[in-house]
Amino acid sequence: MQVDLNKQVALVTGGATGIGKAIARSLAENGARVAIVDVDIARAQSTAADITANGGECIALRGNVASAEEMQQQVQAVVERWGQINILINNAGINTARDRVPIHEYSMDDWRRILDVDLTGVFIVSQAVIPYILQQGGGSIVNISSVAGIVPLRLQSAFVAAKAGVANLTRSMAIELGPLGIRVNCVAPGSTLTEGTQALFYGPNGAYSEKAASLLAHIPMGRPGQPEEIAAAVLFLVSPAASYVNGAVLPVDGGWLAGYTRDW
């Protein structure tokens, strides 16, 4: 899919690796100037350099989305460089890795850490960016949720709660901002082949590699998604082709949420 994003400026949180990296690359390939904000500045710089080497325009900034002060500073840096922001992709997110436990054993530190990044981070970054999108007369925001925010999973109470919050926050933002010219939508990825899922499920030494076959059995397409497939959905939502799409929560999950039950 090719769309015209020339003269537009996009900010992508968590854009150093995985889905965020694929989104940043896709936006740049379609003409947007892209700012990556990530806590891992070394990898963010590597991604920005790769995009630039392939003809795009991209910068990397270090920022923690859970810090309002840091995000105000980095958003201001983007505006000082390019004079505007038209597109915001709230992609930054974390989850527990190996120690997945039921809610009564769940760490309060993990709960706060995940909610701070995955949900409060969306609020913080949106607050910092929206005034600049309004200055341009409108634009587009895409929040990244998860299938776990639509159909809850076990042993991930903070992640599930945060991603469900992102989905409904998206709808609220769409209602508030649509009349002002900002479309707000959400992509809910299913199991996607990133470094994180490699470490958990799909790598030979994954913490839950023995469950990979069972997980894939619930996906009609029989495989995990690729980051580029999630990025394609985001590209559509920020494109002129989606000019009447507002408040949507779009699963990109190979059919997982369709209720695939194999032989039953």
Word description of this protein:
This protein has 264 residues and is an alpha/beta fold. The chain folds into two domains: 9-190 and 230-250, Rossmann fold, CATH 3.40.50.720; 193-224, no CATH class. The chain has eight helices and seven strands; from the N terminus they run βαβαβαβαβαβαααβ. A seven-stranded parallel sheet has the order 3-2-1-4-5-6-7, with helices on both faces. Strand 2 (33-38), helix 2 (41-53) and strand 3 (57-62) form a beta-alpha-beta unit. Helix 1 crosses helix 8, helix 3 (68-82) packs parallel to helix 4 (108-135) and helix 4 (108-135) runs parallel beside helix 5. The N and C termini lie far apart (37 Å). The model has no long low-confidence stretch (mean pLDDT 92).
Shape: globular
Oligomer: single chain
Category from helices, strands and their pairing: alpha/beta
Radius of gyration: 18 Å
Spell the H/E element sequence. Answer: EHEHEHEHEHEHHHE
Number of domains: 2
Distance between the termini: 37 Å
* Sheet of most strands: 7 strands, parallel
Uncertain ranges: none
Percent of sequence in beta strands: 5-15%
Helical residues, percent? 40-55%
Per CATH, the class of the largest domain reads: Alpha Beta
Largest beta sheet: strand ordering: 3-2-1-4-5-6-7
Count the E strands: 7
Question: Per CATH, what is the topology of the largest domain?
Answer: Rossmann fold
